[in-house]
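Intended use. Records like the one below are meant for learning the mapping from a protein sequence to its folded structure. Do not use them to infer anything beyond what is encoded.
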Amino acid sequence: MWVQERGFELPAQPEGEGCAVRWLCYWALLCESNPPARAAAGARHSLFIDGEGRLSSCGLTCLEPQHVNGLLGHGEGVTRLNTPTRLPSPLGGERAVSVSAGRYHSLALTADGSVWSWGNGAYGKLGHGDGQHQWQPRKAEAFAGQRVVATSAGGFHSLALTANGTVWSWGWGAYGRLGHGDEQDQLLPKKVEALAGRRVIAVSAGICHSFALTADGSVWSWGAGVDGQLGHGDMQGQLLPKKVDALAGRRVVAVSTGYAHSLALTADGALWSWGWGGQGLLGHGDVQLQLLPKKIEAFAGQRVVAVSAGLNHSIAITADGGVWSWGSGGFGRLGHGDEQNQLLPKKVEALAGRRVVAVSAGESHSLALIADGAVFTWGEGKDGCLGHGEDLSDQRLPKKVEAWV
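Structure written out for the chain above:
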């Protein structure tokens, strides 16, 4: 009843199992696949949710001059914020429960299951039926009467998951990233019919590809495959969701998509990666392309509990609260005190002794949320996305965000 009152729909009861088992299995899947995203790193901005469900942002309002928009959500005239600053929009009086920072746009999910979007509206990626930019959060009315439980903002498109396990996509349709069997743009959210009948519990939008995770632990991918990022053993693109057969028999509990690489976390705490391996992005000790998911052996003997794939680097959290990063070290985005690339996962020693509960890998910076509510940021600082006020220098080590407005 608790779940149904909040808009969720439980799957069919497993044969021979009681209600308690059914509930525990579903709750575990839901929590593992959709951890609360209370901080998110985009290309040049960062988003945060405080303990009262209020949104804050910092960074640059646009990635390039030709893409000027309301990426920060503070209205016209606000071009950069060096400190996390509360958005003026009340989000209809509802608490924000999750945020997703895309390359050119942002999404927020409120407690009533509504989706709010803002930023660059080109290709319809904001879901309002047009290509207009939005300088402040605007509710996606196309979801009226439905409860959305997860969102993901990619480079040029968006994904949403509703309480009945249905996936919706909108934005730029090139490469088939929307999963509708064509390359048409969608100005409004459109149901991914190819996944009908499958209970999806998590979604992840990359730059040119997308992923969905189903309740049975299966992974489905679609979009651009030129770097093997879809995990099907080839470089073919997919206009429709296709099951990643290489992970069959393993229960995947989380997925994360980067620019041209992908990560999957299985129930046994193992981490798998595939796609473009340049700069050590995949964590296998080399720069080789991987057309099929490959287990990251560097985590042998440890249990990974969360992952985040950025544009040029990857981050993971282990069960002891430790943070590990690998890939491109430029701007100090890995948090190891230097700018060296890391071909294998390396522990962020500067966060040792702190229990990290969430991480987010952006384009050139990273965020970590500590169990006590503190936020640490590191990487490129010139655009203010690290939130350290007048200190716009790059941070090669994690630094606590001290000032909140």
